[in-house]
Design a protein that fits this description.
3 domains, homodimer, GMP Synthetase, Chain A, domain 3, globular, alpha/beta, 9-stranded mixed β-sheet, 15 helices
C-alpha cells in the first residue's frame, strides 16, 4: 500500500483528464505522473534522503497537490503546515519535525527571512510560485526543469508518509504521523461511501491541504482518478463560479458555508446542479438547511463525516440516504453515522470497557486509518492509542444499528452536583434563540456543585439579548439542571483555534486560575 | 488490516441482521461473532498453533462461511480444498500444506478413511454436519459447545491468512498464499465497485468457497455487513427460489447460468426483481444476453470482473454503466474493464517493458490484492512476481482510457507462419455458428508453419456440423490465416479442468507427443 499507487493508476486510466485545476492552470494525470519524478529529483538534489521531512507552507494549489505524491515518490515525509499559524508556531513545527526542506509560496514570502533565521536546520527552501524567488531560495519550477527524473522509491504500508500537526487548544500542537496505509485506507473508505459513477469525480477543495478536510480528499479524488479543483479558501462567489465552470460534483462544505451560498445575492446566477455530493462534518445538519437544500439545491446529496487527524480523516459517516426528513431513515439524522469500511468503532467507559447500546462513553476507533502515533511523543501516543484503540476524546452513544450520536467533547462535559451536562446540548438550546449568533458553554468552579454551567453568548448583529428571557427560553428546551447558572454576553466573536473551533480552554482559563480542572 | 475486522465491525453495525443463510438455518452477525471465538477455541483444543493450516473439504454452508473468520481468529491459516478433486489430489494438497486439522462435511464422509490413512500428518478431523460423526472424527458443533471462547489472535497485514490451490492444467496445483491484507483489499475494492446502498447487500453464493469466485464475495459481503445466502452449487430453480425468498440483490453468475434462468420453464414463476447486481467473468457478456436481460430482468445491472486466484479475485472490472448497447459507453462492452481501486494494471512485452496503448502483451498487475507467493514454491513465485508485478499469463491490450481487452491465454496463442492467432478469437467465430455448442482452438505442430490452427468442435444436441460449411462461416468472420486448417468434431463435451475451464493441455497432448511446444 503506497500512496503513489493511486497516481500510477490514474495516469494509466485517465492520462488526458484533468488531475488538478488551479486558477488558469490545469495539469492532466499524465502531466502529474511526468512531473512527480522530476519534483522528486529536485528534492533529492536539495539534499533529501529517505525519511527526511519536507515541510510545506502554502495556500492550496496544483503544485501543493502534486507535492502530496512527489514527496513520497522521493522517499520523503510531507509535513503540511497550518497556514493560520504565527511565525513562532511555524518555527516550532519546523524544529519539532527537524524539517530538512521547506517549500513556501508567495503568500508566505515575507516570513522567509525569519524562518531561515530561527529554523536553521532547514537546509533548502524551495519557492513554489513563478515570481522571482526571494534570496536564499530556489525556484520550484526551475529546479524541476533542471532535474533528471528519478524512480518512485515506493515506500509503503506502515512507513511514515506525512505528519499533520493537530491544532491543540493547549500546549504545542502534536505531530500526527500518518502512514502510506492510513492515507490509502482513507481514500478507499471514501470510494465505498461516495463511489465514482460513470462520470469522474470533480472535487472542489476549499479546506486547506494542511488539514485532513483538504488532504484526505486529494487522496480520495486521486484514487478515483478524478479531478481536484483548488481554491485557496472559502468565499461564496468564487465557490459558485468554480462549481459552475468546472462542473464540480463533489464538495466539502460545512452547513454554514452552504447557508452562505443560499443567502448570496448571486446564488441564482450560477448553475450548481452538477454537484452530487456535499460532505460536511462537525455536527448534524440543521433541518432548516436540509429543507432549503431539497428545494433550491435538489441535486445535492449530503454525507456527514466524523473523524480527526488521528484517524486520517473520516472514521464515521452518515450516508446520504439518511438525510431525509420523513420515514424510517430520518430517525438517524441526528447521528454522526457508522464506522467506515476500514475501521471499527465502539463506545468505552472510564476503564476502557465496551459499553452497551444507549450508554454514553468515549468513542474509540481502531483500523487501518489510525495514525502510527504522535511524532516524538511516545507518552501521548501511548495514552491515545492504549489497547490498540484510538481514544477520540468525544463523548457519544451508539444505537442498536451501530450509529454513533456525539454528545460532547469529553473535556467539555460539565459535572455539576454529580450530573453530567453536555455543553453541546446546552449550546444547541441557546442557539435556537433567534437573537443568538454563537455560544459556548463551559464548566466553572463552584464550591457546592463542583462545577456549574456557564454560558458565553454572542448576539446577532442588531439584536439584543435579555439574560432572563434567554434562560426562560432554555428552560423550555432542556432540564433545569442543564440550564446556565450564569451568562456572559460578548460583543466580539468567540475565540477560535487555528482549525476554527471555539477555544473553550481560553474561555475557561480566567475561571480556573490556580485550580486544576478534573476531566471525567 | 485483519480479516476479522469486518466481522467485529458487522457485529456492531447489524447485530440482529442475517449474516449467513443456509438451508433452514440463519445466523445473525451477533451469533457469528459469538461463535467465532468458540470455533477458534475448538481448533486450539484440536492442537492448532499460530500459523498452522486448517484444510476444509466441504460444500458451501453457513459453517464454512464462519470458518473463513474463525480460523484466522484462532491464528490459523485456512486452506479451502477443491470439492471436485479426486482423493489423490486432496491428499497431495493436505501433504503439501502440512495441514494439521481437516474439516469435512457429510458430502465427503466416505473419503475420510482414505484421507486419514494417506495424510497422517492431519492430527484431528472435525466433522461439520449434524449427523453422527464418523469414527476418528470430532463433531464440530459439539466441540464448539464444549469450548471456552478465546480472544481474536489478530494476525494481520502481510501475515498468511489462506492458501487457495489453483486448478493447474499441468502438474500439481500450486498453493496461492493470500494475506490478511489481500483479502481485505479485495473486499474494499468491491465496496467501491458495488457499494452497498441503504439496503444491505444480500449476496447469493453458488460458486464454491474453495474458489475466489466464492470466498472473495464472503469477504465483500462481510465488509458490507450484508447477508450471505449459501447454495451448494448452481441449479436454476433453487437459485430462483433463493433470490425470490431472500430478496437477493447481488449474485455471481456467468452468462451461461443467466441464460439457463431465462430459458427455464419456471422463470416467470419467480420474482427476481430484487437483484441489482449480477457479477460475471471469464469473457465479455454476449450482446444477445444483455438484450434479453434488459427486457426480462430490467433491475439487473451487470458488472464484469477479471482476476485470478493470485490477485485474490477481481483485479479489473467493467462497471455496469458500460453495459449498454448504444452511445459512447457501449464502446467498452468488449473490455474486461479497468484496474480496481487497490491495484495497478499494465501491459508488458516479452522483456517486461510496458507497452503503449493498443499493443498486445501480457497483463501484469501489482497492488494490495497480489498474493504473497506460491506455498513452498519460491521458483514459481519468483517467475510469477518478477519485478514486483503479477504476470497473469493473459494476452491483452489496453486502450487510451486504461480499459483492458483480453485476447487470449498466452499459452493458447498460436504462432503460425510468424503471425499471432488468438485462439479465443477463432473460438468466438466458430461458436457463432448455430450448430456449435462449444469449441476449442489449439496450435498443433507443423513442419512448414511452425504451428497450424486446429479446432475441436462439439455440435449442439440434434445438430450436425458440415466441416466445409463451418470453414466458410469462419472465413466470413475472421482473416483467412486465422481459420482452422483442420477440424475435429467431438460427440462428448470438451475436457474441463476442476475450475470448469476447457483443458486445452489435454487436447494438445496427443499432437505434441515427444515435442516441446514453445510458449511465446
Amino acid at each position: 500500500m503506497k500512496i503513489t499507487q493511486s497516481l500510477h493508476r490514474a495516469a494509466r486510466m485517465r492520462p488526458h483528464s484533468a488531475a488538478v485545476r488551479c486558477r488558469d492552470r490545469c495539469l492532466t494525470w499524465s502531466a502529474v505522473a511526468q512531473r512527480a519524478p522530476r519534483i522528486a529529483a529536485a528534492l533529492r538534489s536539495a539534499g533529501l534522503e529517505i525519511g527526511d521531512r519536507v515541510a510545506v507552507l502554502a495556500m492550496n494549489s496544483d503544485r501543493y497537490t502534486e507535492l502530496l505524491y512527489a514527496v513520497p515518490w522521493a522517499g520523503g515525509v510531507i509535513v503540511p503546515l497550518n497556514i493560520r499559524w504565527a511565525a513562532a508556531e511555524i518555527v516550532h513545527a519546523l524544529q519539532d519535525c527537524a524539517a530538512k526542506i521547506l517549500i513556501v509560496d508567495a503568500s508566505f514570502r515575507s516570513l522567509i527571512p525569519e524562518l531561515k533565521a530561527r529554523a536553521p536546520q532547514v537546509r533548502d527552501i524551495l519557492y513554489l510560485d513563478d515570481d522571482a524567488p526571494p534570496s536564499g531560495t530556489t525556484s520550484f519550477e526551475e529546479a524541476i526543469v533542471r532535474a533528471e527524473p528519478v524512480a518512485d522509491v515506493e515506500r509503503q504500508g506502515d512507513e511514515l508518509y506525512a505528519i499533520f500537526y493537530t491544532g491543540g487548544t493547549t500546549g504545542h500542537p502534536k505531530g500526527v504521523m500518518l502512514s502510506h496505509k492510513n492515507a490509502l485506507a482513507l481514500a478507499w473508505s471514501w470510494l465505498a461511501v461516495n463511489p465514482p459513477g460513470e462520470e469522474p469525480i470533480v472535487h472542489l477543495h476549499v479546506a486547506g491541504l494542511f488539514h485532513l478536510a483538504g488532504a484526505a480528499y486529494v487522496w480520495y479524488t486521486t484514487a478515483a482518478a478524478g479531478t481536484n479543483v483548488m481554491l485557496p479558501k472559502f468565499e461564496a462567489e468564487p465557490v459558485m463560479q468554480a462549481i459552475a465552470e468546472y462542473k464540480v460534483n463533489s464538495v466539502v462544505l460545512i452547513p454554514t458555508m452552504v447557508n452562505m451560498l443560499l443567502a448570496h445575492a448571486s446564488f441564482s446566477a450560477y448553475d450548481l446542479s452538477s454537484v452530487r455530493t456535499c460532505i460536511y462534518g462537525g455536527s448534524p445538519i440543521p433541518q432548516s438547511l436540509l429543507l432549503a437544500a431539497m428545494d433550491r439545491l435538489p441535486t445535492w446529496r449530503f454525507i456527514q463525516a466524523y473523524g480527526m487527524t488521528e484517524t486520517a480523516g473520516m472514521a464515521v459517516t452518515l450516508a446520504s440516504s439518511y438525510h431525509v426528513l420523513e420515514g424510517e431513515m430520518a430517525k438517524k439524522i441526528t447521528a454522526a453515522g457508522r464506522a467506515s469500511a476500514v475501521c471499527e468503532v465502539r463506545i468505552v467507559g472510564q476503564d476502557d470497557e465496551e459499553l452497551p447500546a444507549g450508554r454514553v462513553g468515549e468513542i474509540a476507533i481502531r483500523g487501518d486509518n489510525i495514525m502510527l502515533g504522535y511524532w516524538n511523543n511516545p507518552e501521548a501516543t501511548a495514552i491515545a492509542l492504549r489497547g490498540g484503540w484510538m481514544h477520540s476524546g468525544d463523548a457519544a452513544w451508539m444505537d442498536e444499528d451501530g450509529f454513533v450520536y456525539i454528545v460532547d467533547r469529553i473535556k467539555d462535559m460539565i459535572v455539576s452536583g454529580g450530573e453530567n451536562v453536555y455543553s453541546a446540548e446546552v449550546e444547541n438550546a441557546i442557539c435556537k434563540h433567534p437573537a443568538v449568533l454563537e455560544s459556548a458553554v463551559i464548566g466553572i468552579p463552584d464550591q457546592k456543585w463542583g462545577e456549574i454551567v456557564h454560558a458565553v453568548v454572542v448576539p446577532r448583529e442588531g439584536s439584543k439579548i435579555d439574560v432572563q428571557e434567554l434562560l426562560t427560553h432554555c428552560r423550555g428546551l432542556i432540564a433545569g439542571y442543564k440550564c446556565p447558572r450564569s451568562i456572559d454576553i460578548l460583543c466580539d466573536p468567540l475565540p477560535k483555534t487555528a482549525a476554527g473551533k471555539i477555544a473553550k480552554t481560553v474561555l475557561r482559563e480566567p475561571f480556573w486560575l490556580g485550580q486544576e480542572r478534573r476531566v471525567h
